[in-house]
Every structure is written in C-alpha cells, then in structure tokens.
Amino acid sequence: MKVGSLRDYDRLADRIRLHRQVDKRPVIIVEGPSDERILGRAFGENVNYFSAGTRNSALRESQALHEWKQDFFTCVVDRDFDDTVAEYEARQIPIHAYENADLEAMLTVSGAAAALIAEFGSAGKIEAKGGIGHILEKLHHLVEPVTLLRRANVENSWGLSFDAVDLRSKVDKKNLEFKVQGYCAALNETSDNSPGQRVLVQFATGKIPLKKSPSCPRGTIPYFRGRDFLAFLSASLCGYCGTKRAQSVEPDILEGSLRLGGSDHLRTSSWGQELIAHIEALSGRK
Q1: How does DSSP classify residue 269?
Q2: Alpha carbon of 34 to those of 150, 196, 258: distances in Å?
Q3: Which of 51, 59, 99, 236 could form a disulfide with 220 if both were Cys (CB 3.0 to 4.6 A apart)?
C-alpha cells in the first residue's frame, strides 16, 4: 500500500480549526497569497487570512468548516464564469464573492481602470480618442466576445485553454480592433473537444445564444474577467491611447498597479462595508 506524504494529510480546514483554539480572530479563506495581501491592506490585522491555493479548494474547505458547525469564518473568492459559487451559496455556506467575475474586474469597474489609462496613457492621444470614458466603452466592447466564449466553454465542456492564447496578439493596437476570427482560430487549436472555429465565432458574436448569460448578483456591469480586460488595456496603451512599449505595460504590471491602488476602494465600497460588518459580527463569536 502506498503511503502518502504529510502534505496529503494536511487539510486547511483542520489547520484553521486548530489555529482557532489559540487565536479567536475571525477567519477569511481566500484563493491565494495575493488576495491575502490586498485584503490585509484593506481590512487590517483583526482578521486571520488563510490561502487555500485555488478557488475550488477554498470552497471545499469552507464547506468542511460549515459541516463541522464552525461559524467564525467567511470565504472570499472569484465568481468566474461557471455556477459553482452559486451552488455553494445555495448550501448556506458563508461566502462573500468579489463583485463581477473576479477581484481584478471588480477593481476595474470601480474606476481604477480610468486611473490606469490616465497614468500610463498619452494625454494627447486620450483627448484625440474622445477621453477616458470613450476609451473605456471601447475596451468594454472588445472584451465582450471573450466573456461569451468563456461562458460557452463552461456550458459545452469544450476544455478550451484561454491562457494559451495571448489576447494582445489578436488586437490591432493602432485602431484598437479585436480580430475575433483570428482569436477563435487560435483558441480552437487549444482543445481536441473544440467545436471548430466557425462555431466559436458564432458564440463570440452572439449569433448562437448562451443558455445563461454570466452576470454578477450584485449588479456590476459589464461582466468580464479582469485579466482579459487588462490584456486589451495593455494593447491600447501601445498605440491607440498611449506610446508605451509592450514590456512596460504587461498585464501583470497593470494588475499589480490595480491591486496596489485598490485597497481603499475595497474598504470603502458597499462590498467592503458589508464585509466589515460581517467581520464585526464574527468577532463577537468566541
């Protein structure tokens, strides 16, 4: 019989329950260390943050604690493009999902994207393109086909690998036009279960409707993955509304700036105020 490593027997829910014996602060379970950092900056040290590594792990460990009748925690995760978070919420598991598809999207629609355009863009080009508001509308329009494809991928179990295709390579940076057909052709090659380029284009353009459009229960619109938006923003800053070299506005760089500048918004937003109220309620449970 194969003997597992100590890591195989190390379960986050068990560690949290043991830690609770010596530390009575409320617990927030998150997906990864970057979530710990931004939430820590936003909400301080009156909370214990535990990173589960992935969204599904965070949800599973939260379910375990819930089944053990532990009432000192909440789970903060991305909603993404499937219905998994809604299914866990229906079981009355304490979850405070980020608005929109994920944290980056939540921060983007808060106004942080406008700040990024102002900071990294060219004032002259921004004015020539009709201002930041017009640029944001164009970026929101560009990201919509990718949102439709992400949801279609979930509904049809195609197994497409979105991370394998660089969105920026499918953008005309001067005119900020998305080459949807070229993107679908590249995306089609990432999975043997793909329905083919033609069908992908039909979903991307809305000619084939989704069974259920992805949306945020809290009402933030438009709905998209933050990293997808940042890829389009990165491309726009290299020609359309800026003069940056691609290396200086990589999506990772923009994401870092977004997270560093997003703590205040998290704390002062209605989402953040609800989390603060929840933390205070949990603090009374010893």
Answers
A1: S
A2: 23, 36, 12
A3: 99
Residue by residue, DSSP assigns 76-110 as E---TTSSHHHHHHHTT--B-PPSSSSHHHHHIII
Instruction: Tell me if the bond preceding 26 is cis, omega within 30° of 0.
Output: no
**Token digits for 209?**
């409707």
What 8-state DSSP symbol labels residue 111?
I
d(CA 25, CA 261): 26
140 HSE (CA, 13 A, CB side): 15
User: Cβ distance 29 to 52 under 8 Å?
Assistant: yes
- Cα 148 from Cα 223, distance rounded (Å): 10
Q: From CA 93, how far away is CA 82, in angstroms rounded?
A: 17
Q: Collapsing DSSP states into helix, strand and coil, what is residue 74?
A: strand
Q: At what angle do helices 180-188 and 132-156 cross, to 10 degrees?
A: 30
Task: Identify the burial level of 202 via C-beta atoms within 10 angstroms of its C-beta, where 0-12 means exposed, 13-18 middle and 19 or more buried.
Answer: middle
Inter-residue contact 136 to 117 (CB < 8 Å): yes
Region 150-178 average pLDDT: 97
Q: Within a 13 Å sphere around the CA of 281, how many CA atoms are in the beta-carbon half?
A: 10
Is the distance from CB of 239 to CB of 173 less than 8 angstroms? yes
Helix 132-156 vs helix 226-236: angle between axes, to the nearest 10 degrees?
A: 140
The structure's pTM equals 0.93
| Contact between 258 and 107 (Cβ < 8 Å) | yes
Do β-strands 27-30 and 177-178 pair in parallel, antiparallel, or remain unpaired? unpaired
CA-based radius of gyration for the chain:
21
Asked whether the beta carbons of 167 and 187 are under 8 A apart, the reply is no
Question: Sign of the C-alpha dihedral, residues 133, 135, 141, 147?
Answer: negative
Helices 55-67 and 12-20, packing angle to 10 deg? 50
Across the range 50-54, mean pLDDT stands at: 97
